[in-house]
From TrEMBL:
Residues annotated as transmembrane: none
Record-level Gene Ontology MF annotations: inositol monophosphate phosphatase activity
Cofactor(s) required for function per UniProt: Mg(2+)
EC number: 3.1.3.25
Organism: Desmospora profundinema
Tagged with keyword Magnesium: yes
Protein name: Inositol-1-monophosphatase
Length: 279
């Protein structure tokens, strides 16, 4: 089976499980804080994904959110894994757990694959809308099998842009609020849906022209970044350096508004570098 087909199967199986439990009571645990949650459904979905991926590709490594501590160490771990295994899957079983817990219908499964640190396949699946975003390196990006491309907006003033309120590193929210204050009058409007991977898929499919957020992890970003590149967009860190799987502070756009978004974040001192955030 191709890597993409395996990823699709894993995402659909996990999505089915998530969908079944969406409007039921959940057993919720706090991880690092009241802002950082996990449910038994996150864990069961990750198990399901691991089973599908490893039974098809037993020699591959898997970095899953619920298998490690979040934060800088996880990104380092991703890179370390690669020294041993040629292929590394980066898995977020539910991106948008807070939404899932509250019944706010905006969350997804995110599965990305890199080969020797180069992204080769990515799937983002929204189980409630049954929207499957897929990409393979060099083969374009698709939504439910139809090709997608990034939006045509040339300026921030015409752009719908999304961001998020990070839950991890201390101070990340405060830093990002500065970015939101600065960006807000400069773009058409701002959204913060609470699922980074789904926002990235929305940039790839032209529903958003840009997205930025601080302090994310490889499993949030890998699949969505490949989608955007394959859909004709651009992905970098908040200083403009091209995305790689160690990046935590992300800027992802249709390409046309990228430099304007980078410049605005720099002006607002909300890049997450040099402003007290650990990176
Ligand atoms: P999650 O739902 O998979 O945890 C919301 O702004 C985004 O931040 C979501 O994609 C969310 O992913 C992520 N997020 C939540 N808690 C986090 C944490 N402790 N560290 C980093 N990112 C986190
Ligand atoms: Ca989480
Ligand atoms: Ca996530
Ligand atoms: Ca998650």
């Amino acid at each position: 089976m191709s890597y993409l087909k395996t990823a699709i199967r894993a995402a659909r199986e996990a999505g089915e499980l998530i969908r079944r439990h969406t409007y039921e009571a959940k057993e919720v645990k706090e991880k690092s804080s009241v802002h950082d949650l996990v449910t038994e459904v996150d864990q069961a979905a990750e198990e399901r994904i691991r089973d599908v991926l490893l039974s098809a590709h037993p020699d591959h490594a898997i970095l899953g959110e619920e298998g490690v501590e979040a934060g800088v160490e996880a990104s380092k771990a991703a890179l370390e894994e690669h020294r041993v295994h040629e292929h590394l899957w980066m898995v977020d079983p539910i991106d948008g757990t807070t939404n899932f817990v509250h019944g706010f219908p905006f969350f997804c499964v995110s599965i990305g694959l890199s080969r020797r640190e180069e992204l080769v396949a990515g799937v983002v699946y929204d189980p409630l809308r049954d929207e499957l975003f897929t990409a393979e390196k060099g083969k374009g990006a698709y939504l439910n099998g139809r090709p997608i491309c990034v939006s045509a907006e040339q300026e921030l003033s015409h752009s719908l842009v999304a961001t998020g309120f990070p839950a991890g590193a201390k101070g990340a929210r405060r830093v990002n609020v500065k970015g939101i204050l600065h960006l807000s009058p400069r773009c058409r409007n701002i959204r913060a849906g609470g699922a980074a991977a789904l926002h990235l898929a929305y940039v790839a499919s032209g529903r958003l022209s840009g997205f930025w957020e601080l302090d994310l992890n490889a499993w949030d970003l890998a699949a969505g970044s490949l989608l955007i590149r394959e859909a004709g967009g651009r992905v970098s860190d908040t200083l403009g350096r091209p995305y790689d799987i160690g990046v935590r502070h992300i800027v992802a756009t249709n390409g046309a508004v990228h430099d304007e978004l980078l410049a605005a974040l720099k002006e607002s001192e909300a890049t997450g570098y040099g402003d007290g955030l650990r990176v």
